[in-house]
Amino acid sequence: MEVAVIGGAGTIGSTAAYTLAIDRPDVDLTLVDVDVDAATGHATDARHARTLGQLPQFGGDGTTAPVEGAPSRGGSLETADVAVIAASVPRPEGSAQRGGRAHFLERNRELASTIAGALTERDPLPVVVVSNPVDHITHHLWRETGWDRRRFVGYSLSETARTADRIATLRDVPRGSVYCPTVGEHGEHVVPLFSRLTIDGERVTLTEAERREVREYVRDVPYDVIDLRGAGESSRWVTGRGVARLAGAVLDGGFDGEPVSLSVPLDGEYGFEDVCLSVPVRLGRDGVERILEWDLADDERERLDAAYDSITSAR
Ligand SMILES: NC(=O)c1ccc[n+]([C@@H]2O[C@H](COP(=O)([O-])OP(=O)(O)OC[C@H]3O[C@@H](n4cnc5c(N)ncnc54)[C@H](O)[C@@H]3O)[C@@H](O)[C@H]2O)c1
Ligand SMILES: O=C(O)C[C@H](O)C(=O)O
C-alpha cells in the first residue's frame, strides 16, 4: 500500500507524511514536490523516525516500509493507492487573516490544473485534497481529471476537532466526549451541526450564545494559530494528523462504517449540483462509498444554503 503526498516538502505535506510514517509503518510513502531536495530531506528524516519506533529495543516489530522523496512528475504517482494533494503556491498576501483561504484561489487553481495533468497519466485513484480553498480545488481537480466524483474528498476534519474543542471548554467536559459533526464551507460558512451534538453519548442543547461562540471560534482560530506561529505555518498538527487518518482510512476501506464530514462533489444531494462542500460521507477503498443526506434543523439548512451561495459566487 502506498500513499503519495504531493507537496510533500511543505508544512502540511511533510507533517501528514511524518504522521503516516509513525502511525502506519506498513504503508509506503512518496513525498512528491517540485523541491525534490526538500522532499528527500523530509522523507529521509521521517524514515529514520519510523525506523526508530520499529526497532526491537523500543517494542517495534521491524515493519519499515519505504519513505522516499520524488520529483513532481506523473511517474512519481504511478504506484500510489491514494494521492494526497497538499501542494500550494506560497501563502499570498491577505491569506493569513480571516477569510484568507480565498486568496489562494486563482493561483492554486492553476497549480491544480498541472497536478490534474500528472494524475491523468495513470488510472484513477482516491484523491485527498488539502490545498486551499479546499472546496474549490477539490471541485477543480474533479472536473479537470474527468474521473468519477467519488474519487475526490476535500479535507475538512479540522473543523470537527475545533468544534469539539470549543464545546468541551464551554461545558467543562473531556474533549473526546464531544460528538458534533460540521458541514458546509471550509471557511466563513462552516456549519457545526448542533442538532446532532452529544456529550458522552447524551443529546445536549447549547444556548444560542454558546452556539455563536463555537461558530466564531471555529471560523477564527486557524488565523489565530497562523498569527501566533508566524505566517509561514498554518495548523500543521491537526491537519497533519487529520490527513494521515483520512488517507489511512481510505486504504483500510473507511472508518469502520462511521460517517465523517468531507468536502465532496455533489450531484443533487442536499439539493446542490456541480459544487463541493462538506457533508457526511462513508468512505471505502475507492474513495466515497456513500453520501448521507441527514435531516437538518431549519437554521442549519439555512446556513448550508449560505455555504453553497458563498462557494458558487466565488468561482
Ligand atoms: N484543508 C485544510 O484544512 C488545510 C489546512 C492547512 C493548510 N491547508 C492548505 O494546504 C496548502 C499547503 O499548506 P502548507 O502550509 O503546507 O504550504 P507550503 O507552502 O508549506 O507547502 C506547499 C508545498 O507545495 C509544493 N509545490 C508547489 N507546486 C507544486 C507542484 N506543482 N507539485 C508538487 N509540489 C508543489 C511547494 O514546493 C511546497 O513544498 C495551502 O493551500 C494551505 O492553505 C489546508
Ligand atoms: O491554511 C489556512 O489558511 C488555514 C487552514 O485552512 C486551516 O483550516 O487550518
From TrEMBL:
Alphabetized InterPro entries for the sequence: L-lactate/malate_DH, Lactate/malate_DH_C, Lactate/malate_DH_N, Lactate_DH/Glyco_Ohase_4_C, NAD(P)-bd_dom_sf
Boundaries of every Lactate/malate dehydrogenase N-terminal domain copy: 2-154
Stretches the record annotates as Disordered: 53-75
Active site, renumbered: H186 (proton acceptor)
Catalytic activity field: (S)-malate + NAD(+) = oxaloacetate + NADH + H(+)
EC number: 1.1.1.37
Enzyme class: oxidoreductase
Protein residues bound to substrate: R91, R101, N132, R162
Sorted UniProt keywords: NAD, Oxidoreductase, Tricarboxylic acid cycle
Record-given protein name: malate dehydrogenase
Lactate/malate dehydrogenase C-terminal domain span: 160-310
Family per record: Belongs to the LDH/MDH superfamily.
Chain sites annotated for binding NAD(+): G7, G8, A9, G10, T11, I12, G13, D33, N108, V130, S131, N132
Single annotated GO MF: L-malate dehydrogenase (NAD+) activity
Entry keyword annotation includes NAD: yes
Protein's UniProt keywords contain Oxidoreductase: yes
Lineage start: Archaea, Methanobacteriati, Methanobacteriota, Stenosarchaea group, Halobacteria
Protein function: Catalyzes the reversible oxidation of malate to oxaloacetate.
